[in-house]
Amino acid sequence: MGGFAAVVLAGGAARRMGGADKPTLTVAGQSMLTRVLAAVHDADPRVVVGRIPADFPVPVHVTREEPAGGGPVAAASAGLSLVPAHVTFTALLAADLPLLTGEAIDVLRLTLESAPMEGAVYRDTDGHLQTLCGVWRTAGLRAALDRVAEARGGLHGAPVRALLEHARVAEVSWRRPGPPPWFDCDTDDDLRTAEEWAR
């Protein structure tokens, strides 16, 4: 056992941004997907669930959930299927986290190494758990996905909170200066805010 992988979910519809291909939108001159992948540069494999441009500059494995449009839990399962069983930890991340850093990932990994939990995710200042900004024990994430599938009769359409209902996670607070690493861009205003923070 050993190693670290990353599964990045990049298949959302971005309805609040007019259906834009959200992961390809740029912050500080780089696409949000590229910025997320840079935060997990040491992960092997790095799996993107969704579409990527033909000229995408970062080497990644690409897959989609079947059928497409199954939601984040189905997408997580599709991505995890490309992670070898011997890999100990897997980051599960949204593709629209342009302020994510390697340091923020390291905090989650270190927390999980010392906690008897299946995952470690950030808790924001309002007390909400940021499920798609987390690191999981790979075997624990597989087990949680299996429990969700059993409880619901499948993963298609399962909300991301279903993972938290079927797994034990460490809740991590971000205590360092600077923007929160879980800040996601769901609107054009969010994108402008991220751009200001990234300067």
TrEMBL record:
Residues 6-154 form the MobA-like NTP transferase domain. InterPro entries: MobA-like_NTP_Trfase (IPR025877), Nucleotide-diphossugar_trans (IPR029044). Keywords: Nucleotidyltransferase, Transferase. It holds the Pfam family NTP_transf_3. GO terms for molecular function: nucleotidyltransferase activity. This is Molybdenum cofactor guanylyltransferase. It comes from Actinoplanes subglobosus.
